[in-house]
Amino acid sequence: MGSPGSAVANAARDVSGPGQIPGYRRLDGPVPLFHAPRLAEEAREVRGHLRRGSDALASILGVEAPELSALLVADEDWDGAPSDNEHPYPPGLPYFTRSVDPPALVLPEELSPVFRPRTGSLLPLTIWHELAHAFLLDGEVVRTPVWLGELVPQAASAAVARRVGLPLEEHLGLVDQDPGFTVRGFAGPAGAEEQMKFLQNLLLLFGAAALGEFGEGFLGRIFRALWDERDVVGEARAEELLAGALGPEGREWLRSRPEF
């Protein structure tokens, strides 16, 4: 694979793969990226985040990266992006879909204003979050409480940030430390702003704290624990799985955390 500045790596061609948007161009890489022609510069940045995230997650988890693609979708094309749902996702909200083969990360031209804080770390963290979902869903995963299903990719995105030297602490320092609910106390329905406080902020803080206390090894253990589950995971079982992945002091640590 060519380096980020090489002619080989930066070559783009018109390709409409399965489920892709006609006229979009392809950038090769560990996660092939399809993009609107006018978003070529943005696509090169996104490809770098995808490459770093895919390499780091495969190493952290000790698994092969799943076969994936990604789309960087222009605002005017958003309603035509592949989706698991009949209706388009809200503009500006990235997502992972298995409605195409291979599955795809669908990334907006610009993140919705509900994503905060607006730092240079926001875009890569968001991409790595969706990439972690793709890694997790490469195996069979039963239904879990929302907090656990979103904590795992948020902790994984924080782990990638630590691996590649992203200034994570600077980003976390701007996060609201008290959104008014706990990890397990958040319940829908809720507006987009409240959901982002939960998904992008509280769970990111919590995941980063777990990494600081226990190291990134717990991520591989929680991924495998979720892959091994065969029944729907309730609240008590979710806490048990997370505590077990953290290690012998996991349960005591969880109970000591005010956000939990």
Summarize the helix and strand pattern as letters: HEEEHEEEHHHHHHH
Number of domains: 2
Structural class: alpha/beta
Q: What is the number of helices?
A: 9
Cα Rg? 18 Å
Task: Based on Cα principal axes, name the global outline.
Answer: globular
Number of strands: 6
The quaternary structure here is single chain
Distance between the termini: 43 Å
Mean of pLDDT: 86
Largest sheet, in brief, is: 6 strands, mixed
Q: How does this model look, in words?
A:
It is built from 9 helices and 6 strands; from the N terminus they run αβββαβββααααααα. It has 260 residues and is of the alpha/beta class. The protein folds into 2 domains: 1-110, no CATH class; 125-132 and 139-260, no CATH class. It has a 6-stranded mixed beta sheet, with helices on one face. Strand 3, helix 2 and strand 4 (69-73) form a beta-alpha-beta unit. Helix 8 (235-246) crosses helix 9 (250-256). The radius of gyration is 18 Å and the shape is globular. Mean pLDDT is 86; it is low at 1-18.
